[in-house]
Amino acid sequence: MSIPVRPGAARPAARPATPDPLAPLLDLPGVRDAAHDARHGVDRLLGHKVLRRESAGVSIESALRGARASAALSGVDVPLAELRAGTVTDPVVQGALRVSAGLGSMMETWPKAPGQVLARLHVLAAADLADPAALGRPGAHAGPRLSGLFSLVTGTSTAVPAVIVAALVHGEIAALAPFGVADGVVARAAARLTLITRGLDPKAVSVPEVGFTHLGREAYGQALAGYAAGTPEGLAAWLVHCCRATEHGALEGLAICESKLRG
Asked: What is the pTM of this model?
């Protein structure tokens, strides 16, 4: 399926001047309510009192847990304690850690030059997994759909919730697999960048990757397969799944805040 965006559309404005190409997505079964619930969950997290004084610490912990969960979704599940101890050498896990650590430096670039960021994400994710000559280089098959994705990321013509845009970014990269190696880790990182830069989670304190693991790796794969099939039912199921994962990820952020509160 192709992302329904106008070529050349830029970042979100308060209200689009032309018909919103993504607005019909909110009318798919369950999508509008799921997006509302995700927004409510993240707003609740952002209101936690710990974030007034320690948002950086929460963000760092969120990045660590997100890296662990992203690796788990790619098939390598390691205990968080081992990750903290620095004893995990698996290349998938190490790639996910590098990606999470690097997101902060990419936030300003992502809405302006998403292709550059995707290449950098792949270099970080696949450094120990792919031929060095292939790092950051999408395959020729990905060109047309990546152009549509970049228009979506840089576009202003949609006012749909950020969680929906992030789900489309995630689904496109994961389904397209432009690099052939570590595409899932790249897709989840790009989705998180979208949630941050589009204002849903500007402090980067929720953990949507953990949300997907809570819903189950099998359910994640099934929802992604539905998206890749390109049917309205499959698209709706994927969007709802991503919203639910974002809602669960906000709960994980709240758990981090509470642990900071307890000291």
From this structure: 0.91
